[in-house]
């Protein structure tokens, strides 16, 4: 089931007894729970009677099944939502339930990471145990479409975000959809307009270029190969920024440089690349020098970023992991610089 079909079905209250939603997108998971809740309980006063939200990190599969088998009280059906199901261990009890679920319960299994097979792990057992028709993966967004998604998602909350403001938010905040939406809501509060329109002025007032100054200095130090300066800047940034945010910025810089290199090799102009990637032309122009980095070097950097991401999500010590990444990127020279801002 694709995400759009899931949302439509959920909002109509027509979910099947078991749905498994997985993907490394916190906002995607939250939206799935919100749609299921709104569809089953249009009267919010029934939530306390009909909905139960569990955390798989604190429960066993048997606990989940026990809750799912509970009959509804004063509601047509129960919604049992289980977050972080990627942590559930294989269980015959759960497998048996998924094959023959309670028809009066909607069991919504939520994983805030992909359960598909990857370089570092096997395919998660839930993908084979859950009904195929009830498995929902995150929507695939074309490159450069994150700003469009943000405008559409904000519109659902009555917020009108200009195209330039959306692009600026993506540039400054990164690809974390939950963080993007949160900063958009803050920008709406900062605006004085009764229409709740968000432009560049509101975004700048809330996010502010001052937040990006340290990140810009870090990526510039990496570009110049200034390892000592880059490590000092990293220490300073970690005092106020989340490690995964900094990791996302560094990874995004490498990925953007890679794509610019590919498109330049195909003969595209700076303006064409800007349209393809959904970035301002001044950002692309600033990447031309970095795009001269050999493809093998960029590939090695990107693999290293992925490795650090896995380590951070597996409980690695953030400062040590990011410091090691910064040293390697800086030692390699150019390739992760941020374009000069207007």
Textual characterization of the structure:
With 342 residues, this protein is α/β, with parallel strands linked by helices. The protein is built from 17 helices and seven strands. The protein has helices at residues 3-11, 26-40, 47-50, 61-68, 92-99, 126-129, 146-155, 163-173, 177-190, 200-206, 209-224, 227-238, 243-265, 270-277, 281-285, 295-313, 318-332; strands at 18-22, 51-55, 78-83, 105-111, 135-136, 160-161, 197-198. Helix 5 links the parallel strand 3 (78-83) and strand 4. Helix 16 packs antiparallel against helix 17. The longest helix has 23 residues, at 243-265. 35% of the residues are buried. The model is unreliable at 334-342 (pLDDT under 50).
Unreliable residue stretches: 334-342
The share of residues in helices is 40-55%
> Count the helices. How many?
17
Shape: globular
Short summary of the structure?
By secondary structure, the chain is of the alpha/beta class.
Topology:
Elements: H1 3-11, E1 18-22, H2 26-40, H3 47-50, E2 51-55, H4 61-68, E3 78-83, H5 92-99, E4 105-111, H6 126-129, E5 135-136, H7 146-155, E6 160-161, H8 163-173, H9 177-190, E7 197-198, H10 200-206, H11 209-224, H12 227-238, H13 243-265, H14 270-277, H15 281-285, H16 295-313, H17 318-332
Parallel strand pairs: 1-4, 1-5, 2-3, 3-4, 6-7
Key phrases:
342 residues; Rossmann fold; two-stranded parallel sheet; globular; disordered C terminus; Helicase, Ruva Protein, domain 3; 7 strands; 55% helix
